[in-house]
């Protein structure tokens, strides 16, 4: 009986791996591609005003903490805190995002340390979040 159990389990694994689905699963999967493609198109280094508004968070810090929490962590390479830039000026650390209402932001862009150094020079010690305000 034991060899039959191993064969049965092996057959189930093969069926699952081959993507064979039942009619019910196939019906429910018909909506999945639209959702998946919407998420696949998201840039992990950008947050749009629509994404921020959909988070329903009062401040930019809260929205980033909800949608891209890794942005607020210390830089993986340098160990330094993230720096916030508004209008090409360094305004301080990540806590500055607590002072900005979500409705005031058009877009956020995250630059890892290497990209930030290419843009602003070697004085940059960590990653950067660029805040583009609504005009």
What would you say this structure looks like, in words?
By secondary structure, this protein is α+β, with helices and mostly antiparallel strands. Helices cover 41% and strands 19% of the residues. The chain contains 6 helices and 5 strands, in the order H-H-H-E-H-H-E-E-E-H-E. The protein has a 5-stranded mixed beta sheet. A hairpin with a 2-residue loop joins strand 2 (83-86) and strand 3 (89-93). Helix 4 (49-55) packs across helix 5. The longest helix is centred in the N-terminal third of the chain and has 17 residues, at 2-18.
Any key phrases for this structure?
Ferric Hydroxamate Uptake Protein, Chain A, domain 1, 5 strands, single chain, 19% strand, 135 residues, alpha+beta, 6 helices
Strand order of the largest sheet: 1-4-5-2-3
Percent helix among the residues? Answer: 40-55%
Count of individual helical segments? 6
Characterize the overall form.
globular
The end-to-end distance, rounded to whole angstroms, is 73 Å
Strand content: 15-25%
What structural class do you assign from the helix and strand content? alpha+beta
CATH architecture of the largest domain: Beta Complex
What's the main sheet like?
Answer: 5 strands, mixed
Brief account:
With 135 residues, the chain is α+β, with helices and mostly antiparallel strands. It contains 6 helices and 5 strands. It has helices at residues 2-18, 23-29, 32-40, 49-55, 60-67, 113-120; strands at residues 46-48, 83-86, 89-93, 105-111, 128-133.
Helix and strand topology:
Elements: H1 2-18, H2 23-29, H3 32-40, E1 46-48, H4 49-55, H5 60-67, E2 83-86, E3 89-93, E4 105-111, H6 113-120, E5 128-133
Parallel strand pairs: 2-5
Antiparallel strand pairs: 1-4, 2-3, 4-5
């Amino acid at each position: 009986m034991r060899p039959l159990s191993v064969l049965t389990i092996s057959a189930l694994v093969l069926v699952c791996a081959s993507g064979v689905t039942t009619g019910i699963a196939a019906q429910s999967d018909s909506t999945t591609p639209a959702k998946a493609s919407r998420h696949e198109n998201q840039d992990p280094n950008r947050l749009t005003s629509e994404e921020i508004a959909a988070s329903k968070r009062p401040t930019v810090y809260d929205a980033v903490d909800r949608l891209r929490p890794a942005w607020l962590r210390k830089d993986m390479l340098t160990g330094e805190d993230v720096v916030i830039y508004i209008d090409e000026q360094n305004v301080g650390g990540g806590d500055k995002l607590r002072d900005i209402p979500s409705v005031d932001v058009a877009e956020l862009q995250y630059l890892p340390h290497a990209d930030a150094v290419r843009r602003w020079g070697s004085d940059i010690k960590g990653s950067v979040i660029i805040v583009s305000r609504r005009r």
